[in-house]
Amino acid sequence: MLALFWVLALLVPAQAEIRVRHAQGVLVLPQAPRRVAALEFSFVDTMVAVGMAPVGIADDRQPERIIAPLRAAVEGYASVGSRYSPAWRRLPRSSPI
58, 4, 59, 7: which is closest to 34 by C-alpha? Predict the structure, then answer.
């Protein structure tokens, strides 16, 4: 769910503060994220559709699993492990947000 939020946040103007209410409280971001990691292949497709390439993708360490029409659009991303168990330590290296 949080990964979907990051994709949807791309559609908000960059200057707008973003508040997301969730079970543990409220997440406040000072502006829409500019660099995002995708933790599911469907999010990669959505991000490319709105004109943004993820800086990190949970690609199961198999980049060929990204469908051919999207590969060129996401070239140069950092692998952040598998979709079922992302390598959380790799996320800061890909510098999302």
Answer: 7
Tell me which of 7 and 81 has the higher pLDDT: 81
Contacts (Cβ under 8 Å, ≥6 apart) of 18: 9, 12, 27, 28, 29, 31, 32
Q: Give pLDDT, residue 94.
A: 60
Instruction: Compute the distance between CA of residue 9 and CA of residue 13 in angstroms, rounded to an integer.
Output: 9
pLDDT(13) > 70 = no
pLDDT number for residue 88: 80
Beta-sheet pairing, 37-38 with 56-57: parallel
Which residues, other chains included, contact 46 with Cβ-Cβ below 8 Å and sequence gap of 6+?
A: 7
> How far is it, in rounded angstroms, from Cα 77 to Cα 18?
25
